[in-house]
From TrEMBL:
Protein's name in the database: Branched-chain amino acid ABC transporter permease
GO cellular component: plasma membrane
InterPro entries the UniProt entry points to: ABC_transp_permease, BCAA_transport_permease
Similarity remark: Belongs to the binding-protein-dependent transport system permease family. LivHM subfamily.
Any one Gene Ontology BP term: amino acid transport
Membrane topology: Multi-pass membrane protein
Main location as per UniProt: membrane
Pfam families reported in the protein's UniProt record: BPD_transp_2
Cell compartment(s), UniProt: Cell membrane
Domain of life: Bacteria
């Protein structure tokens, strides 16, 4: 029983951070119907940003989280204005190749700047690295990262539900043509959506680095995880991302305990099964993946 509690706690904490990492991907898809294949590289940027803030300024990733989010938001605006704005009304294949090309550029740029070394951040002293919780023991870094993820997701949902710009983002995601007719500035709304989506992604990278290594191709692993979370929770359903992340975290933790060699394969198997038998996910709206900008 103690082992089950321990595995469940570890899976939930891991899944919460996975959900934060995938939320930006799902938010961008829900609003702009763009599948961002450079998503993992933006998370990698957040990890490197957190590392260098710690290395150069002595600022741990949790205190530096607002700066990482703001930097990611600025990158998101540049991403929209410099690339997506010119491909958003084109075919899906154009968007795929554009974002995939950006992914390769960012990976190789990181390799040139930072080499292939594995980097991480030590936040807590070894004696404080584990704490007792609900009859089990959890990593302090995983717990704090989970709390950051929950806070960031709650604030994002409040922003979307309670502010004018948030409601504009919802309107554009539901019907772009109708949103334009009622006077919503589409370009501004999409730029804010990309700022929010990429900001959340870099923030996720920042809170992940105490538990994971940063290296140039780390995004390739996390982009697959994010796609599984998004498909599991439902394309275009931002709230469902949290459930998808926790479910994946639990599955990965239990599979890793029973058969460590199958842990990585779990992501591929889940993605194939979901696309084959449950393409709308657990909470997705039927046809959401086929909707496009008009």
């Amino acid at each position: 029983m103690e082992v089950l509690i321990q595995l469940a706690l570890s899976g939930i904490l891991l899944g919460g951070v996975y959900a934060l990492g995938a939320m930006g991907l799902n938010l961008i898809f829900g609003v702009a119907k763009v599948v961002n294949f450079a998503h993992g590289e933006f998370l990698m940027i957040g990890m490197y940003a957190a590392f260098w803030l710690w290395k150069l300024a002595g600022l741990d990733p949790y205190w530096g989280a607002p700066l990482i989010f703001l930097a990611g938001a600025a990158i998101g605006v540049a991403f929209y204005l410099g690339l997506i704005r010119y491909t958003i009304y084109r075919s899906e294949m154009t968007q795929v190749f554009a974002t995939l090309g950006l992914s390769l550029v960012l990976q190789n740029l990181a390799l040139m700047l930072f080499s292939a070394d594995y980097l991480t951040v030590q936040v807590f002293e070894p004696a404080r690295e584990s704490i007792a919780l609900f009859g089990g023991h959890v990593s302090s870094t995983r717990l704090v990262s989970f709390l950051f993820a929950m806070a960031a997701m709650a604030l994002t949902m409040l922003f979307i539900k309670r502010t004018y710009m948030g409601k504009a983002i919802e309107a554009v995601s539901q019907d772009l043509s109708a949103a334009r007719l009622v006077g919503i500035n589409i370009n501004k709304t999409l730029a804010v959506a990309f700022a929010l989506g990429i900001g959340l992604t870099t923030l996720a990278g920042g809170v992940l680095i105490p538990s994971f290594y940063a290296y140039p191709s780390v995004g390739s692993s996390f982009v697959l995880i994010s796609f599984v979370v998004v498909v599991l929770g439902g394309l275009g359903n931002v709230a469902g991302t949290l459930a998808g992340g926790i479910i994946l975290g639990l599955i990965e933790t239990f599979v890793g305990y029973l058969e460590p060699d199958l842990k990585e394969a779990t992501h591929f198997v889940l993605l194939i099964l979901l696309l084959s038998f449950l393409p709308n996910g657990l909470f997705g709206v039927k046809g959401a993946e086929k909707e496009g900008l008009k």
